[in-house]
């Protein structure tokens, strides 16, 4: 059963999402919050698998709530998915850096929402290749830091190659084709890289790849 926390200051949005999610046999909305502070408290109380969190809310916004959840070791199992009205708005990249597993636009069609929740519950990032490329093109014009983090030096050559391809928006199957390996091996490279770089998920791995300079945009 996928346990879900809804955090949004609009009751109609929460009720609509809840009505849809609770119809699924493998999903259960365990709590609702109207602001980020309450959301973090309920995450600690209920330990959901997924927290669907709106970006713009009173008291504590979605990005800060995401940051607090990501920083709490007791909430390591909670995958945060940011909800936005505007698609690729200015807050999305900041949200990913804060620890979100991905983001969804609120007008997403029902089937895509259900699929997204299941993807996030598996620990995969909600960053389709096309979305990743748009995100990179719009928000990352140069590496955000200089130098190579010590952890990055611990990656094997193949792991670095897999991370670089993931950061360019390739799926595991596409990475496997490019590296001439099996999809399972590609996934293993990505998972080992996440462990070594202390990345919560694939989304964090993409951010780290650009921040470290392992991958540079538009090259």
TrEMBL record:
The keyword Transcription applies. Residues 148-213 form the HTH luxR-type domain. Coiled coil: none annotated. GO terms for molecular function: DNA binding. GO terms for biological process: phosphorelay signal transduction system; regulation of DNA-templated transcription. Keywords: DNA-binding, Phosphoprotein, Transcription, Transcription regulation. The keyword Hydrolase does not apply. Residues 3-121 form the Response regulatory domain. This is Response regulator transcription factor. It comes from Streptomyces xanthii.
